[in-house]
Design goal:
The protein has about 220 residues and is of the alpha/beta class. It contains five helices and seven strands; from the N terminus they run αβαβαββαβαββ. A seven-stranded mixed β-sheet has the order 3-2-1-4-5-7-6, sandwiched between helices. The longest helix has 13 residues. It binds S-adenosylmethionine.
């Protein structure tokens, strides 16, 4: 189903694509999967999560993103993955409007660094799309940043934030995440306070990490 806000005014344009170190707790969410399992990393960027998941877990990670430069960067960084397991498959798609039904269902899916900028109905719709492409029994992991605070600095560009990006308080974010996961029977929630993203974003937030399982 296409999401009816396009191009979205909540997503910032022309931001530098550097998002710091991946969150180990997020990677840990996939540890029960066997090597060779297939993971879909939605809006996965240049592979901040896809690469360590492929390298360390030996997973076949499909990296879905709208940005071809990020996908090329990830593919080139993945050239070292020549072992029996562990691969990155770039998928150039727009999660808001493109159909995913041509993809084989996945053992697990991840969406980090993305949906918490969008209005609630868009967040729910993306989540449903992700669930629809995950196998029964598969894992769905979402990172949802709340209470976001940006430090204003001389080198900050106004382009670093979307015009109408949505700010969720921790309570609002938790309520939304819990309610969207209810459709698959609920989520295990972990929160990380005071997550910092330094230059150029200077962003502090409380990140909700949610993990649920599609009913078998
Ligand atoms: C802040 S980055 C996060 C990347 C990655 N998930 C991570 O945590 O490192 C957000 C990503 O969303 C991608 N993106 C934005 N709009 C998209 C869309 N409509 N469909 C797919 N990807 C999109 C951007 O290109 C960017 O790579």
């Amino acid at each position: 189903m296409a999401i009816d806000i396009h191009p979205p005014n909540w997503y910032p344009q022309n931001v530098p694509h550097e998002y710091g170190q991946p969150n180990e707790a997020t990677i840990e969410c996939f540890s029960e999967l066997l090597p060779g399992s297939r993971i879909l990393d939605v809006a996965g960027g240049y592979g901040r999560y896809a690469l360590p998941l492929a390298k360390r877990g030996g997973y076949d990670v499909s990296l879905l993103d709208i940005d071809t430069n990020d996908l090329e960067r990830a593919s080139s960084d993945a050239a070292c993955l020549a072992g029996e397991f562990g691969a990155i498959t770039p998928i150039h798609k727009d999660i808001l409007k493109d159909d995913l039904s041509d993809l084989e269902p996945f053992d697990a899916a991840l969406c980090a660094g993305f949906i918490y900028l969008a209005p609630e109905e868009v967040v729910r719709s993306i989540f449903q799309k992700i669930v629809s492409i995950t196998k029964p029994g598969g894992i769905v992991v979402v990172e949802f940043a709340t209470d976001r605070i940006r430090r204003i600095t001389n080198d900050e560009s106004t382009l670093l934030a979307g015009d109408d990006e949505v700010q969720y308080t921790y309570e609002q974010g938790l309520k939304l995440v819990e309610s969207m996961y209810r459709v698959i029977g609920g989520a295990e929630i972990r929160s990380r306070r005071r997550v910092r993203l330094n230059r150029p974003y200077y962003l502090r937030s409380t990140v909700i990490l949610a993990k649920g399982q599609v009913p078998g």
